[in-house]
Fold:
Amino acid sequence: MIYKSLCLVIDVADPLSFLAHLQVRSVEQTTGSHVQRIPVELRPPPAELIGADHPFWLQRWEQAEALAERLNLSLRKPCLVPWSRKAHELLYHADATGLDEAGELLDLIFQAFLLKGKDIGRVDILVGIGQSVGLELSETKAVLDIDRYEAEVSDALEYARSQKAEVPPVLIRGHKHLRDFHNDEAIGTFLATT
Structure:
């Protein structure tokens, strides 16, 4: 995978990444710029699965809920925070197939987990989401079952670590970083400065 000099490191199981993604999209629509999304699992295995009341998750969730209110979004707190590797593999699969709706797929995965409370760690849920944007059912299931994009997921994590950006969301422009959630004005300023 080739990483562009302008990218946003996200995790589809992270509410702060979802909100940062929405803010970056707002700036993209205003400026015409394009920011590459790099999916990185915030708590990859062998880290244990955690409940939404775990202190690590709870702090992120509470921060995201306050921010979401300002964006007129109603987040749905899950019972369990799934590993997001399979969802990230689905994004790589959509990209590899040349699917134009890959940006829509990212939105649907975020929405499925953070707005509808679906378990995006389950292959059947992800296959259904993939189908809704035109991915073929049996191919998508096979790709996720055999971990076809495991290397890409690992490479993304290594890239994030090399950039000291393994805790999403992090907006990267060259050697500069904008960490955590920021409003569209701060993001626009960050992207515009040289």
In short: Strands lie at 6-10, 36-39, 50-51, 80-81, 170-173, 176-179. The domain at 6-192 is CATH 3.40.30.10 (Glutaredoxin).
